[in-house]
Amino acid sequence: MRLTGKHIVLGVTGSIAAYKAAILLRGLVKEGAEVQVVMTPAAKEFITPVTMSALSGKPVASEFFSANDGSWYSHVDMGQWADLILIAPATAATIGKMAHGVCDNLLITTYLSAKCQVMIAPAMDLDMFRHPANLSNLEILRSFGNLIIEPAEGELASGLYGKGRMEEPENILEEVVHFFNQKKKLLNRHFLVTAGPTHEKIDPVRFIGNYSSGKMGYAIANALADSGAKVSLVSGPVHIKITNPNITIIQVESASEMHELCLRIFPEADGAVMCAAVADFTPLSYSGSKLKRGKDELTIQLKPTNDIAEELGRIKTGKQVLVGFALETNDELANAWSKLKRKNLDFIVLNSMNDPGAGFAVDTNKITLIDMDNNQTVSELKSKKEVAVDIVSRIILEMERKTSQK
Ligand code: C5P
């Protein structure tokens, strides 16, 4: 199964070749992909949604609202969920609408909301295909970075012979597999990722924690795994489900548990991304029974925890990449830079608490990446998924640099 864990939106439009979309869908599912089919209204004239939902194991999305209960199909959610949007077959009309942003159906709105790669398999008559309007629309789509799976030459539904026949489903499937394989620059690499908060126990019912949701760390684990790496994700208590076969989750609660596991895993790893918001202090002593309410003030003495990143920085070899995070409220750049130095990091990802949309619990982040030469790269506000992909691209560059240094 070469597409396990991949999320694919399969867009089907109104062409005779729509029946081939069923064969393509079957192939994608057999390879382990999770497929959400989106049909344009015209597509349903050629193949029934029942066929497509049976093969994908999911209801087909087609209208903006469900006629039954008024529930809304979120094109934004689908666009964010997808690792790939594949439109097969794509008619001249759909290609034109995509090129010009004409959002009159769910498929085009999903296309405009998506951040992932888009692949398009055109299907039309030869004269339509070679019409300058269609060719220039395809050029526009290429300029957006979309991949066009060239139609084949052959017999067309009109009875004519020429270029315009949708590429065969088996070949489209191979293009999809190839696209995902290309991205696997971290094959045979192993990364340690820490994520989430830690809980430092005071007594059996109370702890000291923080607002970290774990979203950024989990997104990084996913992005590393998507690039082919095996990931050991040492996670504090969070509410995120993850089912990527390349990711092993090791649940911990306290900073000291996280510390112990990281020291054990790191020597075997090619690198580590320290995303967890590890408690800096933990109670000096633990009360085995619940502390009782009293009239007097209660003082809990705290002792510092081990700085895991700093310890890994000390044992890091020349081949390992170590990445840290800094969440700052003031003197951001100076603080982040001194952390990078102290912890011997290859680069540090700075989020400022002063940036709206960045930091704990939200789905977006705005980062500044600082490297060992104090080069600072500021990026715009993005989803944590996109930020994770950017960070992993940078890790790949660092790995390549270290490997070439020998
Ligand atoms: O010093 P500060 O806590 O701001 O540093 C943040 C970075 O160090 C993050 O990458 C965090 O995961 C890591 N860290 C750690 N162990 C600690 C504290 C922070 O690994 N005890």
Rg, Å, rounded:
25 Å
What CATH architecture of the largest domain would you give? Answer: 3-Layer(aba) Sandwich
Q: Indicate how many domains the architecture comprises.
A: 2
- State the total count of DSSP E strands: 21
Strand content: 15-25%
Structural class, please?
Answer: alpha/beta
For the biggest sheet, the summary is: 8 strands, mixed
Unreliable spans are: none
CATH topology of the largest domain: Rossmann fold
The helicity comes to 25-40%
CATH C-level of the largest domain:
Alpha Beta
**Continuous helix count:** 13
In round numbers, the mean pLDDT is 93
Strand order of the largest sheet: 12-11-8-13-16-17-19-20
Q: Which cofactor or ligand species appear?
A: cytidine-5'-monophosphate
